[in-house]
């Protein structure tokens, strides 16, 4: 599902809200263009929109029944309106009439479309279409200003002939141009998992580095901050899971509702993970040392008078993730690993997915300025057998929400 020039909206879930204006007929074409651009599209219509076009036309083009009212119990049963609001990665209102803009600007929720727009956390874009005098009216100007000030993307309108034989600003922007404008704005980084998405599940997360002691004062460590694993643990707890966080040596606060076990070395981390199992989900976000000194020197290792070099005798640590993934008795439904790579990210990640028998692997490219180990931000791609999802650069807290949402999705898709 990687974003390409031809499919600039690949993998995005777009909720198209259609308002009641003559330009509603162009929203049919917009559905096709959004789908051509790679988006998954669901449609909600106002009562006015249904005077101009039928829900059936939208159903035929989007592949989903178009939603028309809050009070349709069959539709609500299939996907409740709050679920639909949550489903969307972004919401697009086209055409946005003067009335709809006013109701959106003032936070009203007096029909399905305005309720969805109020209930969603996804970014909102509006494509206005109306008579040019209505567009220029101070009330509309103020409403559009209010929407813009809240970060709403306003697309158009265009200047030109209007339906009533007049001319001026008020034409709905052409569907291709709307798609181009949507594609020009970075896709939303992540949708958080619904509250309760992991309810009743036990999740074990590892985080941070491990320190492998050489002698009483020295150790082999790495630069992992633990921020990503802690954010994932926090997000999983918010999604309702019972979370055990096995943390290497880091200076981070324990997230609310999370049971934390502090460890130092890879061997201790493995023991703590063993003790935390069985569980439903294992997420190995720790940067576990691959090697540890063969023997710990109880006395500080001294410089020798002649030696210009010092060889350390190291042995492999247990691969906790691979061990966990191959255990039949751990009850795991989903095993998630992380891969930090400097190059050929996708190839190495997919190899690791197979070699360690994982259900999901999250790869990030190390060495990109502003992302990675010690940063608060990151960018990552998740791979699973038969799919992948890009998470553009964003704060780790938001990426963690996106990952936990993906975990919930994968749990629903294929029980291990
Ligand atoms: O093979 P590599 O070390 O790059 O794999 C990274 C993944 O494996 C991470 O999820 C990490 O937590 C896990 N791992 C582990 N035990 C090790 C080494 C890595 O669990 N000894």
- Number of helical elements: 15
**What's the CATH first level of the largest domain?**
Alpha Beta
Secondary structure: helix percent = 25-40%
Relevant CATH superfamily of the largest domain: CoaB-like
CATH topology of the largest domain: Rossmann fold
CATH architecture of the largest domain: 3-Layer(aba) Sandwich
What does the model show?
It contains 15 helices and 19 strands. It has 416 residues and is α/β, with parallel strands linked by helices. It has helices at residues 24-36, 49-52, 55-62, 73-78, 81-87, 98-105, 112-119, 132-136, 138-149, 175-184, 227-238, 266-276, 320-326, 345-355, 396-413, and strands at 13-18, 40-45, 90-96, 124-128, 153-154, 158-161, 167-171, 202-207, 212-213, 219-220, 242-247, 258-262, 281-284, 291-293, 314-316, 334-341, 360-365, 377-384, 387-395. β6 and β7 form a beta hairpin. The chain binds cytidine-5'-monophosphate.
Structure summary:
The chain is 34% helix and 23% strand.
Spell out the blueprint of helices and strands.
Elements: E1 13-18, H1 24-36, E2 40-45, H2 49-52, H3 55-62, H4 73-78, H5 81-87, E3 90-96, H6 98-105, H7 112-119, E4 124-128, H8 132-136, H9 138-149, E5 153-154, E6 158-161, E7 167-171, H10 175-184, E8 202-207, E9 212-213, E10 219-220, H11 227-238, E11 242-247, E12 258-262, H12 266-276, E13 281-284, E14 291-293, E15 314-316, H13 320-326, E16 334-341, H14 345-355, E17 360-365, E18 377-384, E19 387-395, H15 396-413
Helix pairs in contact: 1-3, 1-10, 5-7, 6-9, 11-15
Bound molecules: cytidine-5'-monophosphate.
The site of cytidine-5'-monophosphate (C5P) has 14 residues, from helix 13 and strand 16.
């Amino acid at each position: 599902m990687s974003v390409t020039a031809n499919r600039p909206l690949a993998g995005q879930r777009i909720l198209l809200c259609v308002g009641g204006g003559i330009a509603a007929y162009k929203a049919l074409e917009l559905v096709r263009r959004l789908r051509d651009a790679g988006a998954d599209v669901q449609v909600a219509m106002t009562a006015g929109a249904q005077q101009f076009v039928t829900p059936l036309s939208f159903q035929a083009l989007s592949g989903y029944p178009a939603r028309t009212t809050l009070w349709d119990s069959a539709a609500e049963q299939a996907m409740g309106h709050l679920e639909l609001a949550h489903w969307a990665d972004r919401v697009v209102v086209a055409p946005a009439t003067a009335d709809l803009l006013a109701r959106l600007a003032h936070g009203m929720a007096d029909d399905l479309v305005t309720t969805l727009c109020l209930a969603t956390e996804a970014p909102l874009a509006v494509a206005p279409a109306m008579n040019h005098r209505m567009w220029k009216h101070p009330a509309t100007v103020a409403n559009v200003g209010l929407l813009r000030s809240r970060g709403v993307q306003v697309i158009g309108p265009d200047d030109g002939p209007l339906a009533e034989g007049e001319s001026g600003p008020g034409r709905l922007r052409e569907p291709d141009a709307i798609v181009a404008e949507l594609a020009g704005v970075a896709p939303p980084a992540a949708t958080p998992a619904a509250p309760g998405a992991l309810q009743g599940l036990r999740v074990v997360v590892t985080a941070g580095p491990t320190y492998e002691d050489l002698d009483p004062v020295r150790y082999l460590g790495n630069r992992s901050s633990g921020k990503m694993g802690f954010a994932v643990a926090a997000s999983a707890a918010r999604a309702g899971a019972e979370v055990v966080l096995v943390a290497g040596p880091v200076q981070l606060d324990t997230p609310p509702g999370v049971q934390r076990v502090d460890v130092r070395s890879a061997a201790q981390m493995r023991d703590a993970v063993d003790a935390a199992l069985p569980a439903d989900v294992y997420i190995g976000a720790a940067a576990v040392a691959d090697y540890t000194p063969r023997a710990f020197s109880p006395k500080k290792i001294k410089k020798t008078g002649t030696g210009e070099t010092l060889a350390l005798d190291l042995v492999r640590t247990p691969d906790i993730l691979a061990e966990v993934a191959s255990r039949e008795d751990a009850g795991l439904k989903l095993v998630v690993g992380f891969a930090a790579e400097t190059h050929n990210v996708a190839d190495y990640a997919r190899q690791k997915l197979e070699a360690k028998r994982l259900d999901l692997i999250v790869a990030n490219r190390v060495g990109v300025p502003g992302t990675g180990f010690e940063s608060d931000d990151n960018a990552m791609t998740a791979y699973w057998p038969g799919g992948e999802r890009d998470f553009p650069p964003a704060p780790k807290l938001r990426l963690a929400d996106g990952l936990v949402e993906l975990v919930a999705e994968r749990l629903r898709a294929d029980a291990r």
